[in-house]
């Protein structure tokens, strides 16, 4: 394979074992060449300013800068950047955030050994790649109302075990306002109670613990 036809790849992930696994998964694959690796978002932004890969593999949750923040920053400087998000989190909200930020592919880490080379080649050629099960999840929630930033704040505090009065004190709002937010959250998430709302929000990637 000619060097000029090689797809130059880089990976940003804070787990060395996973980075090593990616390199092993791509080792010996026709026309795929690992250019560099980064251990966090800040390290990745430094390296990409020096040597730009054609396809960037990125964890969505990294120290220093989150994957979403990195995607936005990269796409601002390099609008044609080809970015594939690798994550253990299948939530539809996380997927939407990554795609809106400019990611071209989304792959669960458990599928890397099977699907990564094909996804890299597809994204490099200008296509988008999203696993079918995640695409179904996206379709199921397309028509639903998004939670407001305040409702997400309230939901995070609920997940942390706070009662309505405690949430009101922390956010400096009336307890009745908190109750109204909780009612809206339950309705938007089709949840039966607060615990169900938290479980749904975690599954969909609306909040993280």
Mean pLDDT: 87
Number of contiguous helices: 10
Give the helix/strand class.
Answer: alpha/beta
**CATH A-level architecture of the largest domain:** 3-Layer(aba) Sandwich
CA distance, first residue to last residue = 46 Å
CATH class of the largest domain: Alpha Beta
Shape descriptor reads elongated
CATH superfamily caption of the largest domain = Response regulator
N-to-C series of helices and strands: EHEHEHEHEHHHHHH
Uncertain segments are none
What is the share of helical residues?
40-55%
Largest sheet: 5 strands, parallel
Lateral strand order in the biggest sheet: 2-1-3-4-5
- Counting DSSP E segments of at least 2 residues, the number of strands comes to 5
Strand content: 5-15%
Would you tell me which CATH topology of the largest domain applies? Rossmann fold
C-alpha Rg (nearest Å): 20 Å
Describe the structure.
The protein has 209 residues and is an alpha/beta fold. It has 2 domains: 3-140, Response regulator (Rossmann fold); 149-204, Arc Repressor Mutant, subunit A (Orthogonal Bundle), CATH 1.10.10.10. It is 52% helix and 13% strand. The chain is built from 10 helices and 5 strands. The protein has helices spanning 16-26, 41-50, 67-77, 92-101, 112-124, 132-140, 149-159, 164-171, 175-188, 194-204; strands at residues 7-12, 32-38, 55-59, 82-87, 105-108. The protein has a 5-stranded parallel β-sheet, with helices on both faces. Helix 4 links the parallel strand 4 and strand 5 (105-108). The longest helix is centred in the last third of the chain and has 14 residues, at 175-188. The mean pLDDT is 87.
């Amino acid at each position: 394979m000619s060097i000029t036809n090689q797809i130059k790849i880089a990976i940003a992930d804070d787990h060395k074992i996973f980075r090593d696994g990616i390199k092993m998964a791509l080792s010996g694959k026709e026309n795929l060449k690992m250019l560099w690796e980064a251990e966090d978002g800040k390290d990745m932004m430094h390296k990409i300013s020096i040597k730009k890969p054609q396809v960037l593999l990125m964890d969505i949750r990294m120290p220093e800068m989150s994957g979403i923040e990195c995607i936005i920053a990269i796409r601002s400087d390099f609008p044609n950047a080809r970015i594939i998000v690798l994550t253990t989190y299948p939530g539809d909200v996380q997927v939407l955030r990554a795609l809106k930020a400019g990611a071209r592919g989304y792959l669960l880490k458990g599928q890397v050994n099977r699907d990564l080379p094909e996804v890299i080649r597809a994204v490099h050629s200008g296509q988008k790649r999203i696993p079918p099960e995640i695409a179904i999840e996206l379709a199921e929630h397309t028509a639903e109302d998004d939670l407001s930033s305040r409702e997400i704040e309230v939901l995070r505090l609920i997940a942390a075990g706070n009662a309505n009065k405690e949430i009101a004190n922390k956010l400096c709002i009336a307890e009745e306002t908190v109750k109204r937010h909780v009612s809206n959250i339950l309705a938007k998430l089709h949840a039966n109670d607060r615990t169900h709302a938290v479980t749904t929000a975690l599954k969909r990637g609306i909040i993280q613990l």
